[in-house]
Amino acid sequence: MEPGKRLIGKVAIVTGGASGIGAETARQFARHGATVVICDVQDELGLGVVQEITEAGGVAEYRALDVCSEEQWVALAADTEQKHGKVNILANIAGISGRPANVTVSPGVITGVELKDQTLESWNRIMEVNSTGVFLGTKSVIPAMQRAGGGSIINISSICGIIGSFANAAYHASKGAVRIFSKSAAIQYAKDQIRVNSIHPGFVDTPMARPGLLGNESGKARMEATPLGRFGKPYDIAMGCLYLASDEAAWVTGAELVIDGGVIAK
Description:
Blueprint: E1 11-15, H1 20-31, E2 35-40, H2 43-55, E3 59-64, H3 70-84, E4 89-92, H4 120-148, E5 151-156, H5 169-189, E6 194-201, H6 217-224, H7 234-245, E7 256-259
Parallel strand pairs: 1-2, 1-4, 2-3, 4-5, 5-6, 6-7
Helix pairs in contact: 1-2, 1-7, 3-4, 4-5
């Protein structure tokens, strides 16, 4: 292995790879020697990340993917294995907050609608992207990983998948589902040396989260709740993904990696 590079020869699929945590994870995977298939619905941004990686000497390609479509997942897994010979890593990072635009969180205030006003349509959409998308991705790559002799599946949950709050119950439910699903999948496929773990970010400055973090009472409250005194960066989470993707984590499965600046330690 080339010194300092941790994913030499590995093939990785990264969803939500056009921006935020997904884009930084794709960059780190490529920097450490992986061939990266970046998947998203934001085509222009995704192609931009691919260009950035290839100009830096890495190997990456872009694939438009609706994570809620089983047909598209099956095709992605098959095409990746056929083109690159294997699938070693899946990072399920795509997700939505489900928070209505221009709504921020303040202590004691429900963001968006209360549960009694939550529509079934919005509930189903949040669960479909955040939970069903993870299920479909995991299900779709298992056969290829079995043929490869093992692999690593990294599912992005949230501290909201471990603790509750006064806001956005549908989001909490979807991320809690990812947490327990990951443990179940880890147990089922340990015999195949397929590791499945979840990562639980705290308050991270990404395009999706930024409206609730910067320049408002919501951000002030969240900063005060973070013992390390700063919001997370996509890099902070990407490095956790890199560890779980690497052979250094060969004995880690069914685990919860919390990266939150100390929020839930209190």
